[in-house]
Amino acid sequence: MPSLWPVCIGPETAARCLGWLGVVLLALCAACAVPPDRTPEPPSDPASLYAYHGEPGAWFTPWQRRDVSFSDMLRWGFSRNAYTGEWRDPPEVPRVENDGSSLAVPHKTSALTWVGHSTFAVHDRADVFLTDPHFGQRALLPKRHHPPGIPISAVPADAFALISHNHYDHLDAYTVDTLPPSIRWFVPMGLAEWFRDRGRPNVVELDWWQTVEHGRWTISCVPSQHWSRRIGQAENSTLWCAWVVVSDERRYFFAGDTGYFHGFGEIARRYGPIDVAILPIGAYEPRWFMRYSHMNPAESFQAFQDLGARWMVPCHWGTFDLTDEPYDEAPRELRRVVRAAGASLDPIKIMAVGETWQVPDE
């Protein structure tokens, strides 16, 4: 069954399982509505990626504004799940045990550990950074279906973290409160105050195309096609983004949450060659409702090609049951897409929760 609010509600549609209480919750928790795609295809002109995109409290996507209504939420909530593929019980989400102890010592080159959903611990020589760290038990309401791949206590105190936007499956209050206060946070515009209010002043706020230095790293905030809302933060009052993290040796791209758009090629032009592209593949059905905000596996594979990256690491699946397709379906669909295109699966690293992958040097 679909969830009405992919960042807030679990697999049972609130309107079906809670009756009219679900409708009331919809009104009270509009922070979680996902916009449908009712607009034309976005332009291909890279200039739109640099266009005015709002100001604090009123951000927007300049190449394609989103549109959503209460009736759209009800339409999805009361509709029959249109997914007709195979449901597996239990779902197929592989897991390996990992105590995270390897993060405490310098690594010879580079390794990625999948914590779950969009959270990776990237261990590059002596440095560790996290992508959208989420070690909590819920994304507001949707429950976590497996423990984090490593314990939160394994994260080194000198690590840094990237946040793509403020939705509950990407920004988790428990995680922020529990990680060491010394963690440095890099966030899109409008989110720094939220961190400071929680006693985490070590935060850097960036706009699209802004860059900062952190040790041996150059960290760039780049555009994505998404939106923001959270209880206590009005719709689009904070920005959303993707990240490019570059050292003298490696270049990482982290997409966060995004629909497919024309920006991946421009990001490659400015920051390539990308070594590792961490791209979301899950929470994509139904397409009429999800297409603006979430790529499906075919679009993610196209984004990987647009980026010209050496490696694709899929994420945003297997942890929270957010939309109509089974939460373990996305990797299977990705494999089908790649094979149908006559392409190789070799550069695509589909990881198990807790798995550590050593990035090849060449």
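The above is record 1. Record 2 follows with the same two-line structure.
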Amino acid sequence: MLEARGLCHAFAPGAPVLRGASIRVAPGEIVGLLGLSGVGKTTLGRILAGRLRPQAGVVRLDGAPLPPAGFRPVQYCAQHPVEDMNPRWRIGEVLAEPGLREPAVERALRVDPGWERRYPHELSGGELQRVSIARALRPRTRYLVADEISAALDPITQHEIWQVLMARARETGLGILAISHDRALLAGIATRVETLGD
């Protein structure tokens, strides 16, 4: 179980982004997270993945704190994946960075082996998102924070990517927090939907 309780965070004094937010995601569950812009959805997702330390509250994985270093079992994918990639690295290096790769996942996501010699700026947004998700879905990945990952994609690519992620949740017990403004999308993929900022 991935669980956060009482998370608080502010990027400027007197302007909190999160005020006591709590959420949980069980293995194999896809939890949708809705909320208006600025309520802290991305901040919450980054905290869950260990990319940001909360100023108050706790994040627990099976009752224990997240690992402080090394590969984290909670991975994060952003809406704009190029921001998480070294522009000087070829795609093959990007995919190899976290360690052991999952060829079956790369095939399911239609990651073209020919991309490996290209640089991030040479791929489209949809191609980069496929690479980003493939990089995140390692054998040791237990949870995925999917932060608006399909917001900028065409409907066919969006459908293909979510079919892969839903299958992964069913078959391996991957837990997913799906952050989105798209109520229809979440209604179609999520086992339940939470709203942040109510």
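The longest helix spans residues 155-172.
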